[in-house]
Amino acid sequence: MRPVVTLELLATPVEVSGVRRALRSYGIDVQLCASELVTNVIRHVGEGVPVTVRVWREEGGRVRLGVTDPDPRALPVLVGAVGAEDESGRGPALLDALAVRWGVEQEAGRKTVWCEVLVSVPETPERPGRHRASAGALGSSSARS
Q1: What is the pLDDT of residue 105?
Q2: For the chain, percent of residues with pLDDT exceeding 70
Q3: 8 A C-beta contact, residue 20 and residue 34
């Protein structure tokens, strides 16, 4: 299956807001998940690394989002409880709360953190802008089913 949207960017705070704008037509849950995943790349892999954000339509009103970065070792960790004063750990917790399921696919030289979100979206994105079609599909391994 081909992605509906592919965004290629460098992981910077400015690009996070650009990703949210580009995915506006997919709803707030997809925007939040994408924003958290790109922010996690900035924080744990490094600012300015290349990132690819892909969005697919799945059956049953699901949208699948994948964020690929060049570090297969920096994996998201779901922390049991995140306190109000904690400075990190909210990204995976938010992803876990919003997604039907999510996981990580590791490959040589890269990883993709993906999630599936239930949404009701129009058949085509409203903002084609920087979107580039790209072949490929994410695997089906899951941290949560």
Answers
A1: 95
A2: 71
A3: yes
